[in-house]
Design brief:
single chain, mainly alpha, Leucine-rich repeat, LRR (right-handed beta-alpha superhelix), 2 domains, three-stranded parallel sheet, 9 helices, 3 strands, 7% strand, elongated
């Protein structure tokens, strides 16, 4: 159980997960370990779209659902608290709204910062590819290319989209005769900014 839980906690690529556990009261620790593993996974997994859980106390999972931005379907068969169910529904609704903003960004229907941020949060999610195919009627290969182009667009326009500059990246020249960031070629700048996320830049 420990090895399985450790693997689950670090997983970043599962798109669907269903966990069912039957145990005696003396084995309740297993459910607790599994629950905390799912919580850890929710923080790092950027591909998870569906989560179904059927075991004991899942309060720790419900409390941390909002930390995941790709989950659009959540079912908890142990949940009898209407407020918790409402919270889960709100998270899934928020994520679905974000998914649609990302679709518009990839489809070039919107290019503002909030749409770009939404795209960054869900770009590794299979739901984005499915929604793009549904929205545009394109093949999987075509939508994958569109996602790559959207990523490159953010890298190429990172200074403006992030709010670092208003219109153009331009440095004041000095007497040190050193190469400044605005003198780097477009590919070098894109590579540099590809390691950053828009939300890494704190808005003034």
């Amino acid at each position: 159980m420990t090895v399985l839980s450790e693997g689950l906690a670090k997983n970043t690529s599962l798109s669907e997960l269903s966990i069912t556990m039957w145990y005696r009261d003396s084995d309740a620790t297993h459910a607790s370990v599994a629950g905390h593993a799912v919580v850890a996974m929710l923080k790092v997994n950027t591909a998870l779209n569906k989560l179904v859980i059927k075991f004991g106390d899942t309060s720790c999972i419900r409390a941390r659902l909002s930390e995941n931005y790709t989950l659009i379907e959540f079912r908890n068969f142990q949940d009898s608290d209407s407020s918790d169910a409402h919270h889960a529904a709100e998270v899934c609704c928020r994520n679905y709204t974000m998914l649609n903003k990302a679709v518009k960004f990839v489809s070039r229907k919107s290019s503002d910062r909030s749409s770009a941020v939404a795209f960054e949060k869900v770009r590794r999610s299979g739901s984005l590819l499915r929604q793009l195919r549904k929205y545009n009627g394109h093949s999987e290969a075509e939508v994958r290319r569109s996602v790559k182009k959207a990523s490159r667009y953010i890298a190429d326009n990172f200074p403006v989209l992030s709010g670092i500059v208003r219109a153009k990246l331009e440095c004041h020249r000095n007497s040190l005769n050193t190469v400044q960031i605005d003198q780097l070629c477009a590919d070098s700048l894109a590579k540099l900014f590809s390691y950053l996320k828009l939300e890494d830049v704190i808005q003034a």
